[in-house]
Design brief:
The structure holds two protein chains of two kinds.
Chain A (H helix, E strand, L loop, with lengths): L1 H31 L3 H4 L11 H7 L5 H32 L5 H11 L4 H14 L6 H25 L4 H8 L4 H30 L2 H6 L7 H4 L4 E2 L2 E2 L1 H35 L1
Antiparallel strand pairs in A: 1-2
Chain B lengths: L1 H31 L19 H8 L1 H32 L4 H9 L1 H5 L2 H11 L6 H9 L12 H29 L4 H8 L4 H12 L1 H16 L3 H7 L10 H10 L4 H34 L1
Classes of the chains: A mainly alpha, B mainly alpha.
């Protein structure tokens, strides 16, 4: 009797947790498919429409260009940060070079520097160079946040790879670079993939840099949300439709790395 | 010969990035923090004013307010996140279809853009057509017509809520990782001896999780100190200045009032706080690792 009660209690608790986790997301998805008049009622009984998605992609909102900006900024950031970080992570993981502790400490510490400190000088610099409101500016600043994090994550994954096969290949006369390319990187591929996706999510969701450094041409999706706040009030149904556009690609990626993610997180953070 | 230098060459690309995107701007804003520079008046930096910007900060009520707001926010959000994550991990480490399902969806709040989280909570707590404002009013009549985001304390509460909702899943993953590395033998032995669940958790599991909990608390503190996104999209710092965190205040000084010198000084105060915590954090990690290998 006591056992069944505990069992039921646990199930109820898990259900409650799932509801708390999913409800805000579900409500946004529902609102995105509501007509304006339904969006302001709490009714679940409404006629779904795709009109909001059509509206946000047309003038004056032009969500399409924001999607483009977000995709380009996040992709290029990943393509630059991850290879550089992977090489550095390998060096940190395998060699005991002079000053290694200091360098690693330096890189770890930069991860904790507030973004608002970095963005001030960049704003002034880009203004001087006439680079405000460009994707390139956003990519450069995003690298600051993402690179240390990815070094840290990939190092965790490379640490977990045994060195035996590397040593065997080196004895057979393979060069270190070859070993990295043909042995280590393939073995670390799942970890590197996870780190890349993680880095993509960070950049995709980045808000502060984009808010300050973009005006019109380089606006990314999270900043685009703010534009649905108009003199007519907040246009919730359009915000929700934009929210769905921000969320869906990221959710797919997140679920894809979910399994590795737990491991990578603990490897990176605890070690 | 080539092989001896290779470890350094491998570090070069990443190091250039870090140098150019972090170290250089840091130095730049450090120097700017000792200057007067009103961007609305002058395109170039004006003269050096020594530590005037810092002295001004020490007596300016809006800065002190943002420091206090940040302090309250950090304490509440860190405490709530760590406790909830630990509890959730203890619940979710068991096997079962519902456990697995919850573990999978746990990643969704974490993957959601914080700016969007702010927007969606703002919608849900809208007193007229917000689903949570109305839902809570229907269940608890005392909460009917509460102007959630227009009340300083409640607005802060909701700000904390959005942050806890966003970060608890990530911290739960960390706890689950920590729990998985604890040997099960002691726990099972205690269970056979008839120890209660509560005693097992507090007497056996939590002491062994000390390291993980510490790491979580420090990491979360650092993230909470940077709180910015939801302040913009949820409360706008209001009502009044009741949710104006330090990062948001610096943003206002720099990009609404364009006082670059003062903003840089404020940014460096925030950096100093974070550096202090980070150094402590890295030290702690290194000593934990020494303990683990010993």
């Amino acid at each position: 009797m006591k056992k069944t009660l505990a069992y039921l209690g646990e199930r109820a608790l898990l259900t409650l947790i799932s509801v708390v986790l999913l409800f805000p997301i579900a409500w946004m998805f529902l609102t995105a498919f509501k007509q304006p008049r339904d969006a302001y009622s709490l009714s679940l009984n409404f006629e779904p429409t795709l009109q909001n998605f059509v509206t946000v992609f047309s003038d004056p909102w032009n969500l399409g260009s924001m999607v483009m900006n977000s995709v380009i900024v996040a992709t290029v950031t990943v393509l630059i940060a991850v290879p550089c970080a992977a090489l550095a992570a390998y060096s940190f993981s395998r060699f005991r070079v002079k000053g290694r502790k200091f360098l690693f400490f330096l890189i770890l510490s930069t991860q904790f520097i507030p973004a608002v400190v970095i963005v001030l000088p960049f704003f002034l610099m880009f203004r001087q160079l006439d680079m405000l409101d460009t994707r390139l500016a956003l990519i450069i600043v995003n690298l600051a946040i993402v690179t240390p994090f990815v070094i840290w994550m990939i190092k965790g994954f490379i640490d977990a790879i045994p060195t035996d096969s590397e040593e065997a290949a080196m004895i057979d006369g393979a060069s270190r670079l070859r070993v990295i390319k043909d042995i280590v990187m393939p073995m670390a591929a799942p970890g590197i993939m996870t780190s890349s996706i993680f880095c993509f999510i960070l950049t995709w969701n980045e808000f502060l840099f984009a808010l300050i450094l973009s005006r019109r041409d380089a606006v990314t999706l999270p900043v685009g949300l703010v534009s649905f706040r108009t003199e007519r009030g907040d246009l919730w149904e359009l915000m929700s439709a934009a929210g769905v556009m921000i969320t869906v690609p990221i959710f797919i990626m997140a679920l894809f790395i979910q399994k590795h993610f737990t491991r990578g997180m603990t490897a990176g953070a605890v070690k | 010969m080539q092989d001896r230098l290779l470890p350094y060459w491998l570090l070069v690309p990443a190091f250039i990035i870090v140098l150019a995107t972090t170290i250089y701007p840091l130095a730049y804003s450090f120097i700017t923090s000792f200057r007067a520079w009103d961007l609305t008046k002058s395109r170039r930096p004006e003269g050096f004013v020594g530590i005037d910007n810092y002295i001004y900060a020490a007596s300016e009520s809006q800065f002190l307010n943002s420091l206090w707001v940040t302090f309250i926010f950090v304490i509440t959000s860190v405490a709530l996140t760590v406790v909830l994550a630990m509890a959730l991990a203890l619940l979710l480490r068991r096997k079962g279809p519902m456990h697995t399902f919850t573990r999978i969806i746990l990643i969704l709040p974490f993957a959601m853009s914080p700016a969007l989280i702010g927007v969606s909570y703002r919608f849900m707590f809208n007193p007229e057509f917000g689903v949570l404002a109305n839902g809570l009013g229907a269940v608890f009549p005392a909460l009917q017509g509460v102007p959630w985001l227009a009340d300083p304390q409640l607005a802060m509460g909701i700000l904390v809520l959005t942050d806890v909702w966003h970060w608890t899943p990530y911290m739960t993953f960390m706890c689950l990782g920590g729990l998985a590395s604890i040997p099960r033998e002691t726990e099972e032995a205690a269970r056979i001896d008839g120890a209660s669940n509560l005693r097992i958790v507090f007497g056996i599991i939590l002491p062994q999780m000390r390291g993980v909990i510490l790491v979580m608390a420090v990491l979360k503190t650092i993230f909470a100190l940077k709180m910015f996104d939801q302040v913009v999209t949820l409360t706008g710092g209001g009502p009044g200045t009741s949710t104006e965190t330090l990062a948001y205040f610096i943003f206002n000084v720099g990009f609404r009032w364009f006082d670059m010198g003062y903003a840089s000084a404020l940014a460096w105060i925030l950096t100093a706080i974070m550096m202090f915590i980070s150094i402590w954090y890295v030290r702690m990690l290194l000593s934990e690792r020494k303990m683990a290998t010993a």
